[in-house]
Design a protein that fits this description.
By secondary structure, this protein is of the alpha+beta class. It has a domain of 76 residues: Histidine-containing Protein, Chain: A (2-Layer Sandwich), CATH 3.30.1340.30. It contains three helices and three strands, in the order ααββαβ. A three-stranded mixed sheet has the order 1-2-3. Strand 2, helix 3 and strand 3 form a beta-alpha-beta unit. The N and C termini lie far apart (86 Å). About 10% of the residues have low confidence. Keywords: Periplasm, Repeat, Signal. This is Osmotically-inducible protein Y. One of its GO terms (cellular component) is periplasmic space.
Length: 111
């Protein structure tokens, strides 16, 4: 009786381990630690560049980087500001591409 329980437990354990291993092998990590650190560095540089622009506010424009692709979001007062944010981000070393999702709200325009 104990032998049957042992065999059943081994069979279930082996299935669980092999199933988990196969599942883990199929999933690829989104980013390595080095890529994440590089993206974090790029994001920091983009944010600093936005802060340095007197016509832009880091409170209005957010940046996120994934594999060198910077995604800008937020809301600014003019289309020129949205374009300027994208141009500033493109000028940062390490940026491969910029996705400009910044929205324009004329109510935010400085008068």
């Amino acid at each position: 009786m104990n032998t049957r329980k042992l065999i059943a437990a081994l069979a279930l354990g082996t299935t669980a381990v092999l199933g988990t291993s196969a599942y883990a092998a199929d999933e690829k990590p989104k980013q390595s630690v080095g890529e994440y650190a590089s993206d974090a560095s790029i994001t920091t540089k983009v944010k600093a560049a936005i802060v340095a622009e007197k016509d832009l506010s880091a409170l209005d424009v957010a940046a996120e980087t994934n594999n060198g692709v910077v995604t800008l979001s937020g809301t600014v007062g003019t289309a020129d500001q949205a374009d300027r944010a994208a141009k500033v981000a493109r000028g940062v070393e390490g940026v491969k591409q910029v996705m400009n999702n910044v929205k324009v709200d004329p109510a935010k325009a400085k008068k």
